[in-house]
Structure formats: structure tokens, C-alpha cells
């Protein structure tokens, strides 16, 4: 194995800048309007090509010697003096809890007919890699939003499968060094905007759009490359998109590379990691979910997360085809949805639309007729993946929190000293009430709000203010591809996990942060002094730059804030 070299984020000496003539490739009018005048994209390239050296050269002062070596998590955890090892190149897409090799060892205990193999399965610590996930060969800093909606670097997601099988449906096409996303999907070959307009017509009896139908937050099940979400943005509708890691290779990686919010997930045997009554619309366009199976248990899960007067949009063959067993499936769907007192309000042009009515009398009646078990409907009978605690939050606390984060965000952006377009994919790892995310609402970013499962359930409050998020336990890796976030925010996260056991030590969470971060991405950590001083020591071993600052906390006391930045390195 060779060593590797790096281009430092704060030291651009090593970065050879090349100009990519995108405008020539795709027509100057379109890009002209997106970029304004003098449009061009600059990409910093790695230059070092010393392939035989076993040490690492760092532009600037310090020298690291991190080794390339396949390393597993050992107990007790020790970090080599030379720094955290780097995983071999072939692990450049390593997702610990969606690792096909590991899931394969479990197959005998998984119910494949319920697609359990698509859910999260995290290996025990000793079977997890403990090394930094390297970028693929020829990785380039991602193209910036909004151009990334339509174009991403081909070499960053080096998989042709999706273009081969879904090119005809206009999901994605290959275009020289780029992937091009024309905005299509299986069910909207002619583009998402027309499809979205059609859904608006269906939900408003031809009088308005989805927004006027009261849709603000959407869950897109089986989202593909997330074009649906991208084209709902102009209506100011926010979408949580998910899809499993399955035969449609890397769909979520494409979505995130484009700068569209998405995560890996599957609806199979476990509750989805979202709170009840959170979405005005759940969307399934050929989402490959057998809603009619198992007494409609998965529809009941949709019922749980759907708000009253919310829509279930179903664009799939049972909604319109009369051959094979599609009519039988349709009849089952109708009886299941009627039992839950949903109302079918439209069925045309290959799409069926139900509305979840608030109709207690209907529910009562169906319960008496034994069509439905209300208790089960309300509680839900999927495997409960999280416990909802209730957090009583007063208006004062809420207002103070919002104001506080407005100020912090201003400070953060000053400290990071980046241009407005540099940051797109953001995660608040300990979101509390979503104040940080709300303070970013005027910037061209989207935010994944994460509420740790061992915290109070404030995620419902986050959804209630129109933001999106997910429950997660940071003792386990997150369901995302490597290199998918530009900025991670960890406010008193690491101290919360101080006594949560062996697999969520500071180093474990830092390793996961590093995996999720794009090269040159930032982590903002504010925490107790004991934690921040540990991180200051550890950061260079993870190949992070670290700057220490001080800001006032809510109690107006000075608190250490670390601005860490992942360097742009690669194995050579
Ligand atoms: C890369 O390698 C070539 C030939 O091996 C050498 O001429 C060139 O100077 C190297 N470039 C850098 C930046 O080290
Ligand atoms: C797997 O799930 C199916 C329902 O889809 C059920 O009938 C079957 O009993 C399950 N198998 C096992 C081994 O649990
Ligand atoms: C892309 O993948 C192909 C085959 O999977 C491989 O031959 C090629 O080297 C890869 N290219 C890059 C830039 O990683
Ligand atoms: C939606 O309805 C409007 C008004 O009736 C119509 O002009 C438009 O073509 C419809 N759009 C679609 C996609 O059906
Ligand atoms: C939809 O509009 C048509 C024509 O304007 C009207 O006759 C019909 O009653 C409306 N349907 C609903 C459900 O409002
Ligand atoms: C949850 O909320 C309660 C009451 O507001 C509070 O006392 C408790 O500390 C909170 N728990 C956590 C883990 O934040």
C-alpha cells in the first residue's frame, strides 16, 4: 500500500485550479441565468502523484503519517501515534449499517419476503471498520447548488447502472465528465414539474397547486434520485426523501451529491424514524412497497406519520392497470384504506389520491364492525424503534432559542469565512428545537435535523415549525453515503454520549463525522471544555484542521466553539 497526499483546505498552494467549460457543453442561456454573468466552475484538483512514498506529505508545516490499512474497531480503542489509519480505496463507499457483505451474514435470520434485508443492520463494534473512508479515484469537490440540481461529477458517483436502467425514464444520463439529471422519474418521464402540477390539480379539483392544497412537508418513499423533491422546492414545499440501498444502486448518493436532502431507509418491519403526524403528504411513485400485504401494516405506518387532511399519493400499476393481479391488489388497498377511514378523492392518469380524514365516528364504526383495531392503529404495530418522550416547551424557551441561534449562525459564518454557495448539505446532529436550522432558512442550504433517541422528543416540535428531521442513535453510524454533508453541527452532542457505552466514544462519533463529511467540509463543535480539549488533540489524527474560538452560550457564559475542517486528501 502506498501513502497518500493531501491538499489542505486552508492552504490552496496545492490546489491546481482548472476551469470547466460547462457553459459550452450545456448551452449558455440556461447557465447564464443560473449563474449570472461570467459563469464558470472552479474545481480544486489534487496534484501530488508520488505513488511509492509511504509517508504523507502535507502542504504547510505539519507532517502526518497516517497509514493505509484495513483496521477494525478494537476494544479498548487506541489510535496509532501516526494518526487514524486510512481504509483501502475499495471502501470508498463504506456505509457501516448498510454493508452488503455484513447483511449477507445475517440473511438466514432475516425475513426477505418482508424485505427486512433492506433495513438498517449495524455490525457490532468489533466488526466495524475503524479507519478514515477515502474518496474514490479522481474525486472532485462537488459542483455547487443550484447547478448541482442538474449536473454532478461523474467520477464522484462512479456507477453507470442507474443510467443504464433508468435513462429511458430520464432519471439520469451520462454526459462526458458529468451526470445530467433532466428531472424525470419512472412515473414522470416528462419531468417532475408537470407531474407536480398534475398532483396539484388532483388535490384541488383543478383549482390550485399542492401548496394551496395545504401541503408543506412531504415524505417521498422510494425517491430515486430525488427529482421530485428538487422540483417541489419552488413551491416552498420541503421533502424528506428516502430509498433503500438496493438494486437501484446509489440513488441516495446521487440525490445528496446533487444537494437534495435524502437518506437511506426502507419501510419493511420497523417504524420509520419520524414522529407521528408529521407530513401533509406521503408520496409513492412506483416505490416498490407492497402496501397491501400483511394486513396493510405499512399503510398503518403511513397513517401514523400523516397529518389529518394529509394525502397519500399512489402512482403505481394497481391504480390504473386491469391485467395480472393488479385489480386484486387494488381491491385490497381500497378495503384497507376504507377501514382506516381514508377517502379516495381522485383516481386518474395513473395516480390515486387518498386523504386521511379526521372522522372519529367512522373509526368507531369500523372498530365495532371489527374492520380495524383502533388501539393498534393509533399505537402502531411495527417494531417500535424509538420511544417518544414528551418535552414540555414554553413559548419563552422557544423564542429565546430561536433568537440565540440567529446570533450563532451569524457568528459561525463569520468564523468559517466561506462564500454563500459553499455550503449546501447541512446536518444538525443534536437539533433540540430546530433553532439552528430555522436560522438558516434564508440561506441556500437544506438541513437534516437529528434528534438523538436518548434525548426528549423535540422532533415533533421541529416538524410543527415546518422543518424536517429524524431520530437517530449516535452510538451507530448514520444511514448516509460517505462525503454527503458540507457542514455538521454538534452542539453538546459528545458530552451527551459520554456515558453511553463502548461504541459511542468521542473517537467513534468523530470517525462517523469524518465519513459523512465532504472533503473541505466543516464540523462545528461546541461542548464542555473536557470534550473540546480532547477533540483539539484528536483532530489532527483525523486529518482535520481545527480552530478554537469562544462564544457566549445561552446563559451568557463563554463557551469553546471548535471550527474543524476536513482536509482534501486522497490515496495516491
Ligand atoms: C508527477 O509525476 C510526473 C512523472 O512521474 C512528474 O514529471 C511530475 O513532476 C509529477 N508532478 C508532481 C506535481 O509531483
Ligand atoms: C415472513 O413474513 C411473512 C409475511 O410477509 C410471514 O408470513 C412469514 O411467517 C415470515 N417468516 C418468518 C420466518 O418469520
Ligand atoms: C469507475 O468504475 C470503473 C468500473 O467499475 C473503473 O474501471 C474505473 O476505474 C472507475 N473510475 C474512477 C474514476 O474511479
Ligand atoms: C392543471 O389544471 C390546469 C387548469 O385546469 C390546466 O391548465 C393544466 O394543464 C393542468 N395540468 C396538468 C398537468 O394536468
Ligand atoms: C370539482 O369541480 C367540478 C366542476 O367545477 C364540480 O362539479 C365538482 O363538484 C367539484 N368536486 C369537488 C369534490 O369539489
Ligand atoms: C427532558 O425534559 C425534562 C423536562 O423538560 C428535563 O427535565 C430533562 O432533563 C430532559 N431530558 C433530557 C435528556 O434532555
From TrEMBL:
- Transmembrane domains' residue ranges: 16-36
Membrane topology recorded in Swiss-Prot or TrEMBL: Single-pass type II membrane protein
Q: What highest taxon heads this organism's lineage?
A: Eukaryota
Q: Could you say which enzyme class this protein belongs to?
A: transferase
Pfam families in alphabetical order:
Methyltransf_29 (PF03141)
* Key words, A-Z: Glycoprotein, Membrane, Methyltransferase, Signal-anchor, Transferase, Transmembrane, Transmembrane helix
Q: Which GO terms describe its cellular component?
A: endosome; membrane; trans-Golgi network
GO molecular function terms noted in the UniProt entry: methyltransferase activity
EC number(s) per UniProt? 2.1.1.-
Q: Which BP terms does GO give this entry?
A: methylation
List locations, semicolon-separated: Endomembrane system; Membrane
* Family (UniProt): Belongs to the methyltransferase superfamily.
Protein name listed in UniProt? Methyltransferase
Gene source species: Linum tenue
